Amino acid sequence: MSLIVTNIGELLTNDPDHGIRHDAAVVVDGDRIAWVGPATQAPAADLRLDADGAAVLPGFVDSHAHLVFAGDRAAEFSARMAGQPYTGGGIRTTVAATRSASDDELRGNARRLVSEALRQGTTTIEIKSGYGLSVPDEVRSLRVAAELSTETTFLGAHVVPAEYADRPDDYVDLVQGEMLDAAAPYAKWVDVFCERGAFDGDQARAILTAGAKRGLGLRLHANQLGPGPGVRLAVELGAASADHCTHLDDADVDALAGSDTVATLLPGAEFSTRSPYPDARRLLDAGATVALATDCNPGSSYTSSMPFCIALAVREMGLTPTEAVHAATAGGAAALRRTDLGRISPGARADLIVLDAPSHLHLAYRPGVPLIRHVLQHGAPR
Ligand SMILES: [Zn+2]
After folding, report:
1. What is the 223 CA–ligand 1 centroid distance (Å)?
2. Distance separating alpha carbons of residues 49 and 38, to the nearest angstrom
3. In 3-state terms, what secondary structure has residue 64?
4. Number of helices and strands (H, E) in the chain?
5. Percent of the chain residues past pLDDT 70, beyond the cut
6. What is the mean pLDDT of the chain?
7. What is the maximum alpha-carbon separation in the chain?
8. With pLDDT > 90 as the criterion, what percentage of the chain qualifies?
């Protein structure tokens, strides 16, 4: 079945040769983009989607989300807004709830969040484990994740669980040994929370190296709560992405700029922990590739909304609206090392969104407003 999108007011392609096109049409064949060009020259198609003069852009690629968990932490958020600092320690609250939840509860909650994200234009979402922190609980978390996304990440090294509090090195051995072996069949990526109070640079290096040996791609939570070795470790090991990047020195920025490691910024976390935002402008000006993602999780960023992250990146992080939308689409694709996502050009996956607005600028200009009118995912209207 082929489908033509017509009457497009503005087509944001992320194609380096074309960028923004006007009077364009897009033809989708099956799950791929088949043709992009002037509407007057468009080939025939079986079905027609009338964009009614609105903007059309690639679906959002959310390259960082923690969707497999049980419970929520609204009370912790409220206490934080009343002045309590964020330390990451609340992760253990979610671990306890996740361990006592059934598979169906975990599956139902994750599915609800994926569909919530889809309604807001997210057509690809990465999903991490990391609230099980035992071999069976990490495996079942990844099994649920793999039902919902091909971009699955083993995050056994999220925090040291309470039962290992006085012997953290034993937990690192478990993560890079038996737990990794059991998790690897369901994971594409391995990730570590490299932060004071979680895992240090040596522990992160050991776990990432073990994951790479098992054929997993590398990602790293780095430099969120303070300066640290994470960003440079991610670059040194050739990780696809260093995530958070809130506290960077010049050497960190230079390392990212001279590498293929994407700086993935997660402003929902700074919003929800009332922390200083990362400096996206500095990273872009240095030549780094920047992605925006939600970090959707029940503790430090319980939003699934990429438009919200775009608005924050524009208002608080120095990006223009166009740069922020690029980071939320093409940037996310780069962070997942996917060349078939985040662009509207022949051969790309047919993931696109039609806005309730004439321009992509409205995503930041009209914050908090539901602007996603239609979503095509894998070529199918959703
Ligand atoms: Zn995260």
Report:
1. 12
2. 16
3. coil
4. 15, 19
5. 99
6. 96
7. 69
8. 95
